[in-house]
User: What shape does this take?
Amino acid sequence: MSSGLASTRSQVPVVVAGVAIRAVDQPAVRLPVLWTRRRQEPVLLVAASALFSLSLDFLLAPPLRNTSFLLATTLFSLLVVRRLSVHPVDIALDKTPATLSPLRLTIFCFLHLPLFALANLLSSPDALYDGSYRGFLLALAKVLVFLPPAVLLTRRTWQSLLRQFRPELIASGLALLTYFPFRLFVVAWPFYSTLLARTVHFLGGLFVTGLGYAPGTSPTITGPVLDVHILFACSGLDGLRLFQLLFSLLLVCDWDRLRRWRTLTGYAAGLGLMLIANAIRIAAMVVVGNRISADLVVRYHLEAGWVYITAVFLLLLLVSYRWLLAPAANHGSTGA
Amino acid sequence: MKRIATSIAVLALSGMLGATQLVARDKHKDKDDHRGVNATELAGAGIIAAAMVGGAGYLLLRRRTRLSK
Assistant: This one.
């Protein structure tokens, strides 16, 4: 697929230790070798500094903790390492090859102090749900944690890096915005629970006669043998989180081989399919509980749920994995 | 040999999934006696075990895809 996000790996020659070879034949550069390239690649130090400082922020000021930030920064760091381990330094880009200056590093460290102070003054994570100025300030501090890395490099270097590592930034930005959308689910639950219960009622009704539907904050599917209450924990949020974690693993391991747009499509489709799979899971519980054994469902539905969600992910992967990957270059073959 | 080792690893991880969940469930039952884990911990144990099995499955598929090329 030719696009701004399409992988160009097969066309890029890699230069390591003075030897130019094709990228597809190039084994990954080992981390110590990669580390010696930090002078040419300030992004490595920026990513490492941001990850380290973010971890320190969360350790010293627990109210600042945000797993989405941590996942996004970790993902960005790993994707950058992955990319630099197989791609050359892009000298075509006008990049300022600069290490981090001590002054900038000092400013970077000092910028965290007000955030620590603010978070610890507000003291309680519950303050985030406080409607007063405390909640606003804490939310602000949680977002401002991302600002200090901005002082690490010059504006010109940042612009160059943003151009060069745009796919990695988009991927980590998506992780930041979409990972474990707990608050979104809380807000949407009154509507989503109704939709979920109606879907389960319809699917279950195909196999079980006499099913009823009792609306409410936790809607209930009433059956001749077993009533199933659809709680918030049944929303499929944990299944989404599992999918996102495993998809992150796929991104890190296969970043240089993935087709970017297909990956984006696969991610969006995967999220939707996990929600559909969750509805099917609850419908299966209703059917099995009312047709086979209510006791079986009551005792094992949690364990069966995790096995089921894992199986769904692996099935999705089995179907789409080759589609996500870019075709390998045909070395030694001739065009007819 | 590697294939056998990978299969054993996947089986071991699957066993861990079952064992972790059963232990967590038993502890969850004990909650009434104020000794067990709560539902959040139960979900946490589940997602870790499921992520391990899912990750092992993905790595196995990745390896097979590379070998088949």
